[in-house]
Amino acid sequence: MALEIVDLRGPAPRERVAPTRAALDPEVVETVREIVARVRAEGDDALFDLTLRLDGADLRATGLVVSPEEFADAERAVPADLVGAIDRMVERLVRLHERQVPTEWWVEEDGVRSGEIVRPLALAGCYAPGGLAAYPSTVCMTVVPAKVAGVGHALVCSPPLPDGSLSPLVLVAAKRAGADLVVKAGGAQAIAAMAYGTESVPAVDVIVGPGNVYVTAGKREVAGDVGVDSLAGPSELVIVADDSADPDLLAADLVAQAEHDPLAATSLVTTDDALVRMVDEALEADVSRAARRDVVKASIRNARAVLVEDLEQAALVANDLAPEHLQIVLEDPRALLPLVRNAGAIFLGPLSAVPFGDYGVGSNHVLPTMGTARFSSGLRTTNFLKVSSVVEVLREGVVRHARQVSAVARAEGLEGHARAVELRMRDGNGA
User: Fold this and answer.
1) What is the mean pLDDT of residues 105-113?
2) How far apart (Å, rounded) are the C-alpha atoms in residues 109 and 210?
3) What is the mean pLDDT of the chain?
4) Pairing state of beta strands 385-393 and 112-120?
5) Which of 15, 237, 266, 267 is the most exposed place for a label (fewest CB within 10 A)?
6) Strand pairing partners for 346?
7) Residue 14 reports pLDDT greater than 90
8) pLDDT cut 70: percent of the chain above it
9) What is the mean pLDDT of residues 60-88?
10) Cα within 13 Å of Cα(51), Cβ side
11) What is the pLDDT of residue 133?
């Protein structure tokens, strides 16, 4: 199972590597548009019908909202040590996201008092993939920053199993993270419900969290009517490594990322041909014993090794790829950090495996994909906050600024703007 080699060494100009960009299938987009329109028009009735048809769960008798009894059953079902691990993850995430809260500021200058105030959104919608898989970590990653921001109501939507249940792990995580409501709904129908509201689901101000292609298309469809964090694509990892790296560890890291998705994008960037050969050998053994072997094999077939002249070129490749996760396994990993511009989360040194960040050790795991780390960041407290400017013009400020503001307004043809300023000068104190 050899990595595809992309050799960027040598004096001749080479084609630059580019991130994976997944276009949404037009049929998916049209299906999602119909689902969104139906949920918007029919509310809970549409959710009941779509959940039965797409997830095989009939919720008409029990309802869409998780009951207190279901939460209590979940607490009893999850082993105490696992509950403890979720508690510790929540504690780490609270500390992380508290550091991200912006502060208000005020200044008085030239007769103007101005500043910025920070206010939380009223309602946040958090999507957690579900069904046959359970992702309590994603519940924590999305709910905790919302609650740290001071959001008044945090709602979780996740698709149910055919028997109408949600994973006990998901329910325990939702409770521990501070969710106010958990709804058994998934896919584009859940996104539509959170965006526009139904009898059971309140309309929210922002929708966050990863999901499949239908969730992504749903978020794109409702964006503008409601805030969205990002349009998630397949998971990504770029490893920049030198001859100090352990090939067995690098192979394990590539496999760990590959098991997310057959389309997961993984790249090893190095100056060392011998390292590539050793990682290839280690991958053969790791892939053969992987628990999700079919997924890992499909993903690793698309993995590549990018050979570069030096670490400066390695940083250029990493910035071109703008990966979700960037792992720097060099003799001096911090030396490369000043050259890194585009990455969702960066992991320094041989001990810093990406799964630490996946479970809240120093990072949120809801991160930009498909090269969007060029212009966006991972999920953070500020996704749930708004900043408003506050301006108070004093008499001195009118004297100092009115004529200049009026002149620019008239130059732009905005006579009403100019007059509104000039009227403040009526008492003869204008400059």
Assistant:
1) 97
2) 44
3) 94
4) antiparallel
5) 15
6) 326
7) no
8) 97
9) 97
10) 34
11) 78
Q: What is the pLDDT of residue 232?
A: 87
Could you read off the pLDDT of 250-269 as tens digits, one per residue?
A: 999 999 999 988 888 999 99
Beta strand 4-7 pairing with 304-307: parallel
Q: Give residue 1's pLDDT.
A: 59
Strand ranges inside 9-67, DSSP E: none
**Do 366 and 210 meet the contact criterion of CB atoms below 8 Å apart?**
yes
Residue 295's SS3 state is helix
- pLDDT for res 431: 44
> How does DSSP assign 110-171, residue by residue?
TTEEEEEEEEE-SEEEEE---TTS--HHHHHHHHHHHHHHT-SEEEEEEPPPTTS---HHHH
DSSP-derived letter for residue 88 is: H
Average pLDDT of span 79-104: 97
Under the banding of pLDDT at 50, 70 and 90, the label for residue 291 is confident
Rg (CA), the chain: 26
End-to-end Cα distance, the chain: 77
Q: Residue 164 region, left (φ>0) first, then alpha (ψ -120 to 50), else beta?
A: left
pLDDT at 205: 98
Helices (H) and strands (E) in the chain, counts: 15, 14
Give CA separation, 337 vs 239, 364, 368, in Å.
13, 19, 19
Distance CA 164, CA 306 (A): 47
In this prediction the pTM is 0.94
Residues belonging to the active site? 324-325
Which domains are present in the chain? 26-228 (3.40.50.1980), 233-377 (3.40.50.1980), 394-425 (no CATH)
Dihedral sign for Cα 148, 153, 159, 164, please: positive
Question: In sequence order, which residues have a C-beta less than 8 Å from that of residue 414 and are 6 or more positions away?
Answer: none
CA quadruple 85, 90, 93, 99: dihedral sign: negative
Which of 68, 63, 21 lies closest to 44 in space, CA to CA? Answer: 63
The DSSP secondary structure of 194-234, one letter per residue, reads HHH--SSS---SEEE----HHHHHHHHHHBTTBEE-----S
C-alpha angle 326-327-328 in degrees, rounded to nearest 5 = 115
The H or E element that residue 277 is part of is: helix 273-288
In the sheet that 123-127 helps form, which strands lie side by side, from edge to edge? Answer: 181-184, 153-158, 123-127, 206-208, 227-228
Burial class (CB in 10 A: 0-12, 13-18, 19+), 9: middle
Residues 194-202: what's their mean pLDDT?
98
